[in-house]
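User: Show me sequence and structure for the first protein, then do the same for the second.

Assistant: Starting with the first protein.
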Amino acid sequence: MFEHGVGLPLEGKSDECAIPLQDQKATFDLFLDHIYGHSRSVGSADPYSPEELRSLLELVQKYRCAETRRFAINHIWNKRFSYHLVELIRLGHDFHILQVFSHGFMGLLKIPLKEISKEHHLLIGEEVFVAFVYAKAMLDEHCRIVACEEPVILSHASDCGDPTTCQEDWHAVWWNGMGRFLLDGRNPQPFSDTVKRFCEMQFGRMGRGCQQLMFQVLDCGVAFQYADTFVKDVCQGLVHDLGITSDWFL
């Protein structure tokens, strides 16, 4: 049931070394329910509360019970959208749950900085908060660059009657469309929605062939994919610095 070794607690190893429940009786009952097949299934009408799952993780962290750890993590992951992202970051950090931490951190980067309160800051810790702020600044700068610098038309299509006018209208539509959607102060759009809305716009005197060529450039998404790659790299670096490993005691 429990794993024992050097440096691990001896409680529960024998009748003479009983586990002192103190204020953990309710949590230990949850643990026994799981061990003996009476636990609540994922998606049940009576789900475990976040407090119950955290207490269960604290118990199995102390006594190194891998099976119950996986059980609790599965319930948290299934209900991840009911947690605030900072709660997921905290859970992932405290209990070395790589998947949960990464989901929380990468999701948090989609939230405006002004919505992160002092309580959120304290909950995720200084190191995570600093990484979040710097990453957010880099992403905002990248977004402004994409909004202001349209892809250059390297080669015009055969049906383009006036390359100069075509380039001018492409520039104007990019700024009035992509720039406005990405930099909207009240409702900035994510890259995917921005591209979809942009492609539905009118492109003035720009030839149809040139439009299709540039839409293909947008479909490649090199500039847009940079943001996703950057976020993954920052998250992986943070996971490494914090020493979060999913198999830390297994």
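Switching to the second protein now.
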Amino acid sequence: MNIGSVFATTQPVSVGPYHYVPTEWICILFVVLYSISTVLHMGQALKYRLWWMIPTAFLAGVLEVLGWSARLWSSRSPKLLTPYEMQIVGTIVAPTPLVAANFIILGKIITQLGPQFGRLTPKMYTTLFCSFDIICLIVQAVGGASAAHAAGQKTSATMGANIMLGGIVAQLFAIVVYVTLAAEFLLRLKYNAPFRYVDKSHILEKGQSTESKNSQLMLFGVGFCTLCIFIRSVYRTVELANGWAGPVISTERYFDWLDGALVTLAIYTLNFMHPGIWLKKDDPTVSQQTADEEASAT
């Protein structure tokens, strides 16, 4: 057995809507991995009382479990349309709540390291990006449902694919803007260049660093998670733009590595680099300072 055969998956064949038969053991592996992460996220959300992690990271895990369970079903009944329709919606939509978790975490990091260095206030980061993320989620869900319905009716799913494509491209745009603003914040923090006026007692002395080791780890975690989702979104964009019968969507190993594996890395990153562990609890002083920053910004 050569190395290539170990990593290769079922070769594309003209059977069912996938144009291949999903590999059973790979589907089982991802169902198990996502299930473990999802249970951990619920436990961590309850332990650290971070309720917003439930409709974000936990929900993403639930959707991935459903999507990969449907693919497991397809591995045994590759010609059935119902599991194919389920996995379309599940795997397309699932990473979107995970992106929202990253948006919220960035706002909390900015709150702790210095709101005056951000172009937006922490509350604006969360409100603006999460609102846009919800819109992307709805668009992708509508597109996925439309494509699934078309597949069930054996009609063209092009419109549904285009809607999903629009939602993913919009999400890519949001991630790029998010990363740009985060990079600007870090540069302003490093060079002590506040974006807005604050009381002098809140401005750091030159050369003083506010990045604790925990904050640095959390920033690394959010950055890596975002990178994984970004690469996955680029892949799904190319996949959908290539068409339902194109070589990209018809090759199983692309999906396994560039969607399944990358989203697995992303969701586990937030298990290990969990904000409940690496970010300190909000305190009245920080909350009051943040409120003052937002008032001065308006």
